[in-house]
Design a protein that fits this description.
With 93 residues, the protein is of the alpha/beta class. It has a domain of 61 residues. 25% of the residues lie in helices and 18% in strands. Strands 2-1-3 form a three-stranded parallel β-sheet, covered by helices on one side. The longest helix is centred in the middle third of the chain and has 16 residues. It is extended.
């Protein structure tokens, strides 16, 4: 009997990335929320929307939902993110 072991690691070298600069304040900013579309995200994002507007004076909260919870966000969402000051992604079941 032969046992075959597969190596699941990627051969590609990850690109070195630098975090975006931290915002000093959320007041007047646009925050985008990206949902994976599962059932548990609706209540979470509704509550987060309310908190962002009431406590942090966020000007705009935009909610987008991916078409497929297990796939990356669509190009149209990625293009839109470029216009947001902050993006929050969420998972739910």
């Amino acid at each position: 009997m032969t046992i075959r072991v597969l190596d699941p690691t990627s051969e590609a070298t990850p690109q070195a990335l630098k975090p975006a600069p931290r915002l000093r304040s959320l007041k007047g900013k646009t925050v985008g929320l990206i949902s994976n579309g599962k059932e548990g995200t609706a209540g979470f994002f509704a509550h987060l929307d309310r908190l962002l507007r009431e406590r942090y004076q966020v000007a705009n909260v935009i909610l987008r939902t991916k078409a497929n919870y297990s796939a990356p966000a669509e190009e149209s969402i990625i293009d839109e993110v470029r216009n947001w000051d902050l993006a929050v992604t969420g998972l739910g079941d």
